[in-house]
Amino acid sequence: MRDANMTDKPYAVVIGLDCMTGLQTVRILAQHGVPVIAIAKNAKHFACFTRVCKRIIIADTSSPEFVTALERLAPELPAKAVLIPCTDMSVLQISRHREQLGEAYHIGLPSAAAVEMLMDKIAFIKFAQKENMPVPATFFLEKESDVQKAIGGLRFPCILKPPMKSPKWEKNTKKKVFMIANKDELFEVYSRCRDWADILMVQDCVAGSDANLYSCNCYFDRESKPLVSFMARKLRQWPPEVGTSCLGEEVRNDVVLNASLSLFEKVKYHGLGYVEMKKDERSGEHFIIEPNIGRPTGRSAIAEAGGVELVYTKYCDLVGLPLPESRVQKYTGVKWIYLRRDLQSAFFYWRRGDLTFGQWLKSLRGRKGYAVFSTSDPVPFFADFFNKIAANFFAKQTQVEPVHAPATTKKRAPAESETEVVA
């Protein structure tokens, strides 16, 4: 239900609308009567067809270009707005430009040093090791000889990934990590990926299924006090084993909760935070896989589905409004699903013999929140399915006979939104 005093609330500016996280965030805020302006890099992304934004600005959210867009926007705003970045690179850019943005925008981030350390996987691993926090055995690869050194301390299978997904990495692959089966494959994948990042990292793979991946979403105020937290776990992800959650459920795990809160308290944290940990099925130990900071995550909307106001707590805290009452997790077992990707993931496991049709149906039972589907804002859901079907069709056609891409035409955003392009 929408708040009656919608126009009285300061704007929220969501950076990175063109991703699942951005879409979920603008919907959550709009449901609370918050007027939302969004910034997106890709105007053709399915999320940009949402009807809940007052305005959509097109600018590169992985570079300082969107910072320039924010500076141009500031004089038009009636009050200081709240910035809610939804991608790692936008978090980093906001942190690095906080001096010039701080007059016009509320920025919920810890110190610049804490942001850099927590977002730099190399620096974070070294910090965690120093603080005796549970992280998998990790080696950093700058040259080929480092691969040979790492082999002596690794257990296979292992994973290889960049410390941060840079634009160059994302240009070459959609994968977050590569699963490595043996030492020969490690050399082969490293040779293929070495030019996509200045440095790569290889880690022990913590044994266990997708369901062994637990997460804690939380928000800390300016005094580093945790105002809200929410525990969940993955059930399936896409791509399988190394991807992003497509089905998750609320669950209690105090080991992960306490480790997550302890990590953020050590760095005097402020803002939205997320820690993912995996339980090793051999030893029962929990290992930190990664923190994500300064932004909502893809599955963080499970908190709102479970009746815990995670994103809105941040908004209220920054603008000085009364905090929402729904901030305590009740562990009702709510689920969250990205339907299209879960169909892909379920098909993969079914084909491999790890999931029956009946087991898949059973996993969908219960109260759910949806990543993309919405009865009140349906166009992004259908656009997502259509885009995937079209992409697969054209990919098959290209395999048969290369064709020239047709000239693109500018798509209009829904009538309820105003879209502009920032040069």
Describe this structure in words.
α3 (88-96) runs antiparallel to α5 and α5 (112-119) crosses α6. The chain starts with 11 loop residues before the first strand and ends with a strand. The model is unreliable at 1-6 and 396-418 (pLDDT under 50). β13 and β14 form a beta hairpin. The chain folds into 3 domains: 6-107 and 410-421, NAD(P)-binding Rossmann-like Domain (Rossmann fold), CATH 3.40.50; 137-200; 210-370, D-amino Acid Aminotransferase, Chain A, domain 1. It has a 7-stranded mixed beta sheet. Strands 5-4-1-2-3-17 form a 6-stranded parallel beta sheet. The chain has a 4-stranded antiparallel beta sheet with strand order 6-9-7-8, covered by helices on one side. It has helices spanning 20-31, 65-73, 88-96, 98-101, 112-119, 121-130, 144-151, 167-172, 183-193, 254-266, 302-305, 310-319, 339-352, 357-363, 379-400; strands at residues 12-15, 36-40, 55-58, 81-85, 105-106, 138-141, 158-161, 178-180, 200-204, 213-220, 226-238, 244-250, 271-279, 286-293, 335-337, 368-370, 419-421. With 423 residues, it is α/β, with parallel strands linked by helices.
Primary descriptors:
423 residues, seven-stranded mixed beta sheet, D-amino Acid Aminotransferase, Chain A, domain 1, globular, single chain, Rossmann fold, six-stranded parallel beta sheet, 17 strands, 3 domains, 15 helices, alpha/beta, disordered N terminus
Topology:
Layout: E1 12-15, H1 20-31, E2 36-40, E3 55-58, H2 65-73, E4 81-85, H3 88-96, H4 98-101, E5 105-106, H5 112-119, H6 121-130, E6 138-141, H7 144-151, E7 158-161, H8 167-172, E8 178-180, H9 183-193, E9 200-204, E10 213-220, E11 226-238, E12 244-250, H10 254-266, E13 271-279, E14 286-293, H11 302-305, H12 310-319, E15 335-337, H13 339-352, H14 357-363, E16 368-370, H15 379-400, E17 419-421
Parallel strand pairs: 1-2, 1-4, 2-3, 3-17, 4-5, 15-16
Antiparallel strand pairs: 6-9, 7-8, 7-9, 10-11, 10-13, 11-12, 12-15, 13-14
